[in-house]
Design a protein that fits this description.
The complex is a heterodimer of chains A (216) and B (334). Chain A is mostly helical and 216 residues long. Chain A is 80% helix and 0% strand. By secondary structure, chain B is an alpha/beta fold. Chain B has two domains: 7-175, 3-Layer(aba) Sandwich (Peroxisomal Thiolase, Chain A, domain 1); 181-333, Peroxisomal Thiolase, Chain A, domain 1 (3-Layer(aba) Sandwich), CATH 3.40.47.40. Chain B has ten helices and 15 strands. Chain B has helices spanning 27-30, 52-70, 91-97, 113-126, 141-148, 202-220, 236-249, 261-265, 279-295, 313-317, and strands spanning 3-5, 9-11, 17-25, 40-41, 80-84, 104-106, 133-139, 164-165, 168-175, 181-187, 229-232, 258-260, 276-277, 301-309, 324-333.
Chain lengths: 216, 334
């Protein structure tokens, strides 16, 4: 019995290598055969004595792999067919807008820095921290007012890459999940978008710290 | 009793009608080209409710109540209430059902839910199990966005292939009493997956399922007159283009009678990119665009093809491709 399945799968290999030459109905027939074989295999395995059941695992796996080959082939054919239909991404326009918006955010931060440098006696380190904080506060307010998502739609990466994008992702999540309560809503979901940045940011800083420590 | 024609098409007996219907939409939809056709609109996406989910439930309830009122029916005459939406566990529909005394059957076919509901309701009436059956479907832009994508206030640039989930609900009451709209045939869809996994490109994912259903219908009814309009639920600009291409490859040129609910719902200035989507989309557009035209016989036979992408946030994150489905339902003027 097992041998018949094995032989069938062997002889199917050659068919699978020449899918390109086969008609759509031939391929449908092939899928139908594979499906029928899968049914027989599962049934045979279920009905086999317990110690022989394992013998079917490879056959079942092989059947599923063969089905995957046919599906993958059909998927590639479809991808090829629709390749020319996809609308062109407005890369130049988006890049320019990202440059403008991202640049503008940095200019605002620089203005804050210049203002504080001229008018206060604070250290440069403190001033740059304050500049970041003011961008964060500004973003939080703009997000709350429902303006930042419009800036994001216009500026794309330009609004996402600076620290404002990070602030926006936290505030927007907090606003979104307020209705599920302070604990299960805001508490549990506030970092749904920013979480990966915080986690991997921390991991990266630990690694870099280690390197710096070992290098010193 | 209904009969099967060809491989996949069903022909209902003579007397199943859309007795009455109503549509409720959000602000953006009400600012679109079909505004005059909707029965009710919400001035904002909350309509005074505490959450978007609650607002969506209200849309469904209003739609049903308006449909009952337009048809001069008491809720107690409904033998069944069928429906679905895009929320987890279809709560907009189930919470609407808790105000009713009729038996309820919850449906999920993503954005094809509405067409699926019409088909099942017609079957129930055709089989003699019901006199009146209500079918509801809804979607709400914000409640869907938060569930499937990002928080709504997050500044994300949407892709050109992306579609805009419509804030809309429709309620349709089917019965045996004569009306201008007769449901005559249906082609229930099968699941088709052509390997698209990008959830920002549902049009490309759903087009093969729609083409499969439309081709099945055209083949089964090749001796009959073609519909005046083949309208897909939410393939959008890109999906519609691909669907027509797939049909043309099979020898069906239906470009002149083809349209899409998602495209009709908004103007291009409304920045929806590839068009509208959502289970409320086809329910709203059928009522606002197709039925009024059937009523004055500007159209005589419409094939509505509700298209659905059967994915979940988990399947997307696990890198699965998107299985899709399309149910066809034929509505003729009397």
């Amino acid at each position: 019995m097992n041998n018949t399945f094995f032989q069938n799968q062997r002889s199917r290999e050659s068919l699978l290598s020449q899918l390109k030459t086969m008609s759509e109905s031939k391929i449908a027939q092939l899928k139908n055969d594979l499906q029928k074989e899968h049914i027989s295999l599962i049934a045979a395995q279920a009905n086999a004595p317990r110690r022989e059941q394992k013998n079917y695992d490879t056959l079942i796996l092989h059947n599923e792999q063969q089905m995957k080959i046919v599906n993958d082939y059909q998927h590639t054919q479809y991808q090829r067919l629709i390749a020319s239909d996809a609308p062109k991404k407005p890369i130049v326009k988006n890049t320019l807008r990202a440059f403008l918006v991202g640049g503008l955010i940095c200019v605002i931060a620089q203005l804050v820095m210049n203002f504080l440098t001229i008018n206060t006696t604070l250290e440069t380190k403190t001033i740059s921290g304050l500049a970041s904080v003011s961008i964060i506060v500004l973003t939080a307010i703009l997000t709350g007012l429902g303006i930042y998502d419009e800036i994001g739609r216009f500026g794309g990466a330009g609004s996402m890459v600076p620290i404002s994008g990070f602030a926006n992702s936290i505030v927007s999540a907090a606003m979104e999940f307020k209705r599920e309560g302070m604990v299960y809503g805001i508490g549990a979901k506030i970092f749904t978008v920013a979480g990966p940045v915080i986690l991997y940011g921390t991991v990266a800083s630990v690694l870099i710290g280690l390197i710096a420590y070992l290098g010193a | 009793m209904g009969t099967k024609i060809g491989q996949r098409t069903y022909q209902f007996s003579e007397d199943i009608y859309i007795h009455s219907y109503a549509t409720v939409v959000g602000r953006k939809e009400y600012s679109g080209p079909l505004a005059a056709g909707f029965d009710y609109h919400f001035a904002d996406n909350l309509h005074g409710e505490a959450s978007w989910e609650k607002a969506e439930q209200k849309m469904q309830q209003y739609a049903l109540e308006l449909a009952l009122s337009k048809g001069s029916l008491d809720p107690s005459v409904l033998d069944f209430f069928l429906g679905g939406d895009l929320l987890n566990q279809i709560i907009a529909t189930t919470f609407t059902a808790r105000n009713l005394t009729s038996p309820f059957l919850g449906l999920y076919g993503a954005c094809s839910t509405f067409a699926e509901g019409l088909f099942l309701a017609a079957c129930l009436i055709d089989g003699g199990f019901a006199q009146y059956t209500a079918v509801n479907a809804s979607s709400h832009h914000d409640s869907v966005e938060r569930q499937l994508r990002y928080p709504t206030e997050m500044g994300v640039q949407r892709l050109m292939t992306a579609q805009w989930t419509a804030t809309a609900a429709g309620s349709y009451i089917l019965g045996r009493q004569t009306s201008p709209f007769r449901i005559t045939q249906a082609v229930p869809g099968r699941v088709v997956d052509m390997g698209i996994s990008d959830n920002n490109d549902m049009g490309s994912a759903m087009a093969p399922a729609a083409a499969d259903t439309i081709a099945a219908y055209l083949t089964d009814t090749k001796d009959e007159k073609l519909p005046d309009l083949i309208i897909t639920g939410d393939l959008g600009v890109l999906g519609g283009q691909i669907c027509l291409k797939l049909l043309l490859n099979q020898g069906w040129d239906v470009k002149n009678i083809y349209n899409d609910c998602g495209i009709l719902l908004y103007t291009t200035e409304q920045d929806t990119h590839s068009g509208g989507s959502g289970s409320g989309c086809s329910a709203a557009v059928l009522g606002a665009y197709c039925l009024p035209r059937l009523e004055v016989k500007q159209l005589n036979k419409v094939l509505l093809v509700g298209t659905g992408a059967l994915l979940s946030p988990a399947s997307t994150q696990q890198g699965e491709t998107i299985p899709c489905i399309a149910h066809g339902i034929v509505i003729e003027s009397r």
